[in-house]
User: Fold this.
Amino acid sequence: RGAAADAADLAGRHVVISAGGTREPLDPVRYLGNRSSGKQGYALARTAAARGARVTLVAANTALPDPAGAEVVPVGTAEELRTAVLKAAADADAVVMAAAVADFRPASRAANKIKKQEGRDPEPVALVRNPDVLAELSAARPAPGQVVVGFAAETDDVLANGRAKLARKGCDLLVVNQVGEGLAFGTEENEAVVLDASGGETHVPRGPKEVLADRIWDAVAARWASAAH
Ligand code: CTP
Ligand code: CA
Assistant:
């Protein structure tokens, strides 16, 4: 932790963090999901609380201890996550979308458990698009001076894809990391580049998720400071 981390430099700020991965139900017992553990989002919550912020953590299907000092709002689906994040964002100084939000959900949810049919092939699963919470937040800007942060996991052309995604989403900062075999998912460490909409680029070498979290809060604080001038 750096000197800034000891200074309670986020005191008086309300930050909202989404973490984990959404689950989109097919029937009462099955879902489409993803491998996000929520560890990076929880590290963001712990570090923000340690630096004095009021923290709302919207947690999608995580199995991690509640971070000290954070208000935890559990959610399941992308729709539930959207409702919880937009509500908490109304008075937030920063929103960090660390959750893996499913791009699609099953078009319908069977009321009863889906059964095999003897001698018949299964029905294909029809999908529909989920709302893009990050793009919606970036367009709405409910609170003045709010800083909106996205995450992107890319497997190739990491920086170019990250820049394009930052522009497309309209957020202020985008944290890009490379994923693939044995990288990022469920691990204790992360390596990333923090892209700033103003053109800045901060490389954070492989290390604990807390260290990346502190660098992300540094970048958020820098946006607040530049907006104040
Ligand atoms: N995100 C979101 N709502 C969605 C999908 C993604 O808010 N329905 C957010 C994620 O929380 C993340 C950011 O958008 O902060 C980027 O997610 P990513 O999946 O990389 O972006 P997509 O636009 O879905 O692009 P892709 O087609 O590469 O999945
Ligand atoms: Ca996606």
Summary: DSSP finds six helices and twelve strands in the chain. The first strand starts at residue 14 and ends at 20.
